[in-house]
Design the sequence.
């Protein structure tokens, strides 16, 4: 089961726009040694839309291998093509990912019937692979309705959802409809603690790429009942959560990590670096958190 603070791992690039596997290995070790409870490969934060299929598979394999069973790995495999998704899920399963994360098909705007058949076919082709739905209507346009989540939750290997809707009534509704064993993970750092309070069990995090220890401690304190400390940490990280989404993610987090010498501030087109005003705001927050001088 995935729970706690689960960084959506960035994909570092060299100045030639190739995947920097040395930096990626360093970053994986950093995230795990600082207390992260799991990792997600090839998600939005990992710039999966600009990875070709071969690169996508290599990054998935690399993160699984270098994690070395220290934490579970959830492989991002979603696409707006059902057959393409099945191919990526089968690869992730062969690479021994612990689960897969499947974003709702974007751009082609399927109906609820289409969404159900999409996920059902993928499930049928990978029966032993735990599947997490990824509900992010701000990017995919399509929202997974609570009624559809209830229906999908009855498929044995669809085990949970990453909720990036900002709707804090959703986890309560889903818990009521699907039961406590259907795993709910926040997809937004700013709602991590509130999501826990409303029935969630963790967060797939962008911020945890920068401060994995602090993000992990929000959850660690929560589960032992030290709510005040969780609230204190959540408030401490609020300014960082805010600046990391001033522009399209992962552009801000890539810049922030470059200031910490974790990666180059390089993205593949059509993504570009954040503007100077955003850089200034990120610099200020990093300094206040004593991450830079």
Sequence:
């Amino acid at each position: 089961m995935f729970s706690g603070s689960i960084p959506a791992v960035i994909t570092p690039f060299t100045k030639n726009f190739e995947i920097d596997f040395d930096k990626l290995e360093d970053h994986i070790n950093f995230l795990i040694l600082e207390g992260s409870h799991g990792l997600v490969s090839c998600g939005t934060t990992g710039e999966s839309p600009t990875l070709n299929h071969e690169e996508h598979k290599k990054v998935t394999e690399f993160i699984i291998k270098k994690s070395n069973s220290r934490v579970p790995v959830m492989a991002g495999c979603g696409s707006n093509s059902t057959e393409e998704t099945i191919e990526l899920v089968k690869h992730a399963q062969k690479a021994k990912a612990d689960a897969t994360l499947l974003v709702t098909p974007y751009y082609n705007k399927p109906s609820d019937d289409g969404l159900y058949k999409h996920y059902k076919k993928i499930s049928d082709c990978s029966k032993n692979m735990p599947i997490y739905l990824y509900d992010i209507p701000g990017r995919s346009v399509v929202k997974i309705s609570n009624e559809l989540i209830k229906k999908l939750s009855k498929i044995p290997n669809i085990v949970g959802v990453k909720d990036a809707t900002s709707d804090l009534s959703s986890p309560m509704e889903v818990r009521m409809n699907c039961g406590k064993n259907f795993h709910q993970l926040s997809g937004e750092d700013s709602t991590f603690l509130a999501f826990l309070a409303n029935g969630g069990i963790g967060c797939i995090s962008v911020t945890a790429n920068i401060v994995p220890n602090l993000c992990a401690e929000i959850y660690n304190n929560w589960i032992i009942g030290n709510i005040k400390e969780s609230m204190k940490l959540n408030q401490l990280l609020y300014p960082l959560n805010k600046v990391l989404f001033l522009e399209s993610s992962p552009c801000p987090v890539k810049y922030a990590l470059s200031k910490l010498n974790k990666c180059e501030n390089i993205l593949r087109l059509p993504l570009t670096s954040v503007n100077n005003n955003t850089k200034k705001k990120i610099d200020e927050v990093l300094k206040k958190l004593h991450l830079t001088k």
Observations:
- The beta strands are 4-7, 39-41, 73-76, 99-103, 131-135, 158-163, 183-186, 202-205.
